[in-house]
Amino acid sequence: MHPPPPPDALVGSAFTLCYRGYCDHGRIRTPEPGSAPDFYTCGADGWGPSSLSPGCFVRAEGQGSTFEATVTACSPEARPNLDGDTVGLRLEHDGSRLVDHTRFVRYTGTYERRDLAPPVRVHRATVEIWPSSESGKTCESGDCHAGVHFEKIVTMTAEGAGMTTITACRNQDCASFELTLWNWGDGRGVPYGGGASMVGPFARFAPTIDYGPTGHGAYRLRLDFPGDTRLFTPGERFAVDWRADATGAVIMKADEIVTQYDETYPGGRDCTPVACRAKTFSLADR
Fold first, then answer.
1. Side-chain half-sphere exposure of 284, counting CA atoms within 13 A
2. Rg of the chain, C-alpha, whole Å
3. Buried/exposed code over 149-176 (b: 16+ C-beta within 10 A; e: otherwise)
4. pTM, full prediction
5. Are 148 and 258 in contact (CB under 8 A)?
6. Is 34 left (phi over 0), alpha (psi -120 to 50) or beta?
7. Rounded CA gap, 242 and 53, in Å?
8. Domains identified in the chain, total number
9. 250-258 and 236-244: which strand pairing?
10. How far are the Cα atoms of 75, 78, 107, 112 from residue 83, in angstroms, in the given order?
11. Fewest beta carbons within 10 Å, which of 95, 157, 197, 267?
12. Are residues 106 and 236 in contact, defined by beta-carbon separation less than 8 angstroms?
């Protein structure tokens, strides 16, 4: 959901999440001590008895906010997820209702919950709500991963081992981060780990990296410049320079001006009236 007020103005706002007519309630809270600024969570006080396991967070997006909420209902006794299931979201702020939205979902994609006995096949649906989204629609599930993305599979080498430094720039705004991907021993690369990290301090457009070994002597790397889809405009420049500290060996290097974004409307224009703008660059191992 994309409410127009900034996150700090939403503190204390009440929301209700509903699934198949069962609802839970919560409030938006200020960031916890030590957490990233502009990362607001949902208070546990006020949850209802429906056991939907709701969770959410709020972050800055352009001049407003992005509010991401999830509900999970996948116990072995639960009725299977069926297309046409009803989900709903209400958000009340300063005595007025910012959002009162109901949607009938079509599921896409499944995954298995092996931690349950017996294991349960869970269906997944994503709902994207803008202030101008029409309520009461039946919509396909769809994700929006707005932004610019660089992807690469890189072979582990002795020259690339040890500490590396990544510098990522959007126009003239740059951030850096240090990371060890693999070490070198007995004539081969030894994976150091994998995961996800933010490049530089938290900011509205802070780049992030996702990385991990492929199991075939290589690493998969992904650098993302996320943000408000409305603020990605043609003509912007995105660059990455990722090198090994000891040797200067290039891990990932690119410098691109995005002349046109790929635009999609997850769930259709009635359900997602704002274009999801994204551009992905697949880089060769070099």
1. 1
2. 21
3. bbebebebebebbbebebbbbbeeeebe
4. 0.81
5. yes
6. left
7. 40
8. 2
9. antiparallel
10. 18, 15, 6, 18
11. 95
12. no
Domain-embedded: residue 213: yes
Residues 94 and 152 in one domain: no
Residues ≥6 apart with Cβ < 8 Å to 78: none
User: Does residue 2 form part of some domain?
Assistant: no
**Cβ pair 43, 57 in contact under 8 A:** no
Token readout for 120 is 């349960």
Query: In 3-state terms, what secondary structure has residue 44?
Result: coil
For residue 278, which amino acid is it? A
Domain that holds residue 127: 7-140
User: Which of 242, 190, 181 has its CA nearest to residue 211?
Assistant: 181
**With contact defined as beta carbons under 8 Å apart, do 151 and 282 qualify?**
yes
pLDDT tens for the 286 residues of the chain, in order: 898 888 888 898 988 888 887 788 888 888 777 666 677 887 655 555 555 566 788 888 887 888 888 776 654 445 666 778 888 888 898 888 888 999 898 887 677 767 766 777 777 788 888 888 889 888 888 888 899 999 999 999 999 999 999 999 999 899 999 999 999 988 889 999 899 888 877 665 689 999 999 988 999 999 999 989 999 999 999 999 999 999 999 999 999 999 999 999 988 888 889 999 999 999 986 4
**189 - beta bridge partners?**
184
Task: Please report, to the nearest 10 degrees, the dihedral formed by the alpha carbons of residues 100, 54, 59, 134 taken in order.
Answer: -30
Same domain, 111 and 207: no
